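Translate sequence into structure tokens.
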Amino acid sequence: MNGDRCQQPQCTGTLEDDYCNLCGMAHQPNLSAVQTHTSQTHASRRLNSQTLNSQTLNSHRTARSGLGLGLVSLPPLPATDPEALLLQDPSVPANKRFCGSCDHPVRRDQGFCGRCGRPYSFVASLKAGDMVAQQYDVKGAIAYGGLGWIYLGFDRVLSRYVVLKGLLNTADDSSAAVALAERQFLAAVKHPNIVGVYNFVTHENPLTGQSEGFIVMEYVAGQTLRQLRRERGPLPVAEAIAYIHGILGAFGYLHDQGLVYCDFKPDNLMLEGQSVRLIDMGAVRRLDDPLGDIYGTVGYSAPEAGAGPTVASDLFTVGRTLAVLVATVPEFSETHRYQLPGPDQVPLFAQWESLYRWLCKATAPQPENRFQSADEMAEQLAGVLREVVALETGRSIPSQSRYFGGDTFLAPVDLSPADLSSADLSSADLSSADLGHLPPLLADPEDPAYGLMLPLLTLAIPRPNSRYCSRCCSNFPRRLGLSSNAFKP
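Result follows.
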């Protein structure tokens, strides 16, 4: 549609990416047709879990045109050799060793907890050259997480690199249960922005002589946001927003499946080419499971997460992650563990007010004050991104509203559309404006009264609209969710 003339009355602009470069209106093939809306660090720790009634919130999918909505030029990532990621001396730092049963700090690589007496082990059980399930050639350990060691392997049958995820504490029954649950339901998780789970295999642990389970997952070649943040410092706002916005579709998918990720942070978001992927699915759990252990990371987890994960607590971690990517938050895991500092402490928050408001809503102390779905969060973040790009480039980035059509009142009749950009309308006489000049409402196909509301969009005169609405409310009260005497015309 680029180069076509705008079809809005009295406008002489042309279309760029389906939007007018003069009035900002979206392309509409038939203006007389009814407009409708169409539908898309610290180590992880186990939190105290209690029963909490959680509800899966319906998320409305919105279409996304590439990472960053195609508005942001993202820097290319250098090619990486998978085996360059191997750790020369795989060990868990002392400050990240905790008993899997009581969370008491432990000093040694393996032994017995001084508080509860439970045995523990943080030693990597697989070594380079080990062959697992007669198929996976182990290259070595590449990372450790809150739930286990992560190894690089090579599939001798399919000739591809894979990732094998074992248990960090092989004597912890809870961690074993988490791994088993991951094998059972994560194999059915299929989304382009979520790492794939291939298989579940066992291998005898030479240290204990017992069979140990491993999740075999897709190897994603790329760089985590944690690595990127460590190398470059705070990321440009538009770039960081593009990464976070790109992964919200995966969160929406999980929530629609009745799952929550629980432990989102920069470590668990991988950049791969021009896409982003969720990795390390070890902490994912069902919303309807009140008994499972809950894993999270201090500074990222919501204050109520220990009582049971919800969609709102999951999205809280997304907001905290974006804050870390764009700014250095003082005392992130202590004073500002749950609430962000103000613009007076972080200059970037003062520079980008809309971003700060988005972050405050995403990380609000009360769950009901946060975004209630990944799609709602993505829609608002897209608006912030458009504003950031517009201010940085000096070019307006219009977007069609989900709720309203375009403005029908552009300017006084004696003002040429060609002069709109330089006109001062502050003193314009708008007294003659009426309801007909307001942007038309878009119909929501998911509204139960959609069929009754549709004719309203074809009526241009306000008074007939009122009469029609009155008749609908009186004749179809149950369909509109009204009592029989709730509305009297």
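Note: The longest strand covers residues 136-144.
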